[in-house]
Amino acid sequence: MLGSFDAVLLARIQFAFTVSFHFLFPAFTIGLASYLAVLNGLWLWTREHKYLDLFRYWVKIFAIAFAMGVVSGIVMSYQFGTNWSVFSDKAGPVIGAPMAYEVLSAFFLEAGFLGIMLFGRDKVGEGLHMGACLAVAVGTVFSAFWIISVNSWMHTPVGFEIDAETGQFLPLDFWQIVFNPSFPYRLMHTVTAAYLTTAFIVGGVAAWHLLGQRRKRQLASPATRTMFSMAMWMAAIVAPVQIFLGDLHGINTLEHQPVKVMAMEGHYESHENGAPLYLFGIPNDETQRLDYALGIPKLSSLILKHDLNAPLAGLDTVPDADQPPVAIVFWAFRIMVGLGFAMLGIGLWSLWARWRGRLYAAPWLHRAALAMAPSGLIAVLAGWVTTEVGRQPFTVYGLLRTADSAAPLDAPAVGATLIAFIVVYFAVFGAGTYYILRLMSKPPSPDEPRLKDVSDGPIRSGGRAAAYDDAPQGAHATRTKG
């Protein structure tokens, strides 16, 4: 049955599935690592126990999400040598070094200090433990730096030459490759999106517990209130910044990848005297038109070129073979933008409630925040789809086609591994996600229990003293007698 499918299409679906699944975890842990560092810093500064309770509450969730992100990333990377070996051969001399630096610097920085962050508070002292929290937070952003640099080069390739005999991309200027034209915009946009993703997950969890405690006529705990307040501050401050960065990124994309912008805007036709901003429409690649179009005249020209009457070229200037799938790009872009403005709305709503002194007594705000909890994850996936599908039909934009990048594999072989990935991913990562949701379903409690780095069995990594120091306070007397 799989033999009737195209091997390249199946390879693209497999990579899209694995990279989308993987991207969910870094999008959460990048922001959560920084949140944990802030919580730990506030605990050391103020000695208010609510910050320590929140740190212990979220560090358990971080540990699971981080582990799933690492495992899913390793699995994804193997596809460069299987399904996309031709791409790896041709682009490897350029992208190999930045990807290696990501592992050697960023990932080792995260992994090296992760154990201290999770288990070392009572072992190494508060100062070094705080340093470990900062190292993990910096490491997650540094990891994003290298990966986004590689991906950005594939969109705006510079600093290379092509070997006439092998067709390989050979590096000429390493720093030009790293800091390629789209990289700064893509990095800022992606990292900011990760912070917003974390803010809305944290805010949604806090809103769930605020609603539950309200339903039980209980007073919300200081930790829950603080969690919601910090999340809403992040939403109110970062959401408008993200929209501004998105506008800059869009202008940069228009300069370097105009075809992608044509697909995002649904502009099948060129507009010589101002292009409309289409709010709705059904892209039709066969007829090369946007059916049932509903738009605002000239607004697209104003946004993209800051001139109502600025001309914008359309897909009628691009050969059909060089056009991306417009419908996917068009709708993914609108999902991303729509959720971005919804986030801004929640942030402004929270400011209004805070100003009125009703931030913790606004059930409709809490319901809206709960509904928006997964919005960041959906938005980053929609943005990723917009970016990557909009680059098609190329892997290296304008230079190496996707059809010429795939390994010479048969469709049944690719399809079989795709099915295996789907089954295993949903089983393994589904279980991990279920456990994270179970942890989130319980509110942070006073004297939130810590992660234990020793077992109750006879094996002790740090000896009897370590077991004693890490035990809950109430168990000290028992261990002393034992």
From TrEMBL:
Per the record, the major location class is membrane
Q: Where is the composition biased (Basic and acidic residues)?
A: 445-455
Transmembrane segments annotated in the record for this chain: 20-45, 57-80, 100-120, 127-148, 192-211, 223-245, 328-352, 364-385, 413-437
Question: Looking at the record, which segments are called Disordered?
Answer: 443-482
Q: Which GO cellular component terms, listed alphabetically, does the Swiss-Prot or TrEMBL entry include?
A: cytochrome complex; plasma membrane
Keywords, sorted A to Z: Cell membrane, Electron transport, Heme, Iron, Membrane, Metal-binding, Transmembrane, Transmembrane helix, Transport
The family classification in the record reads: Belongs to the cytochrome ubiquinol oxidase subunit 1 family.
Q: What is this protein called?
A: Cytochrome ubiquinol oxidase subunit I
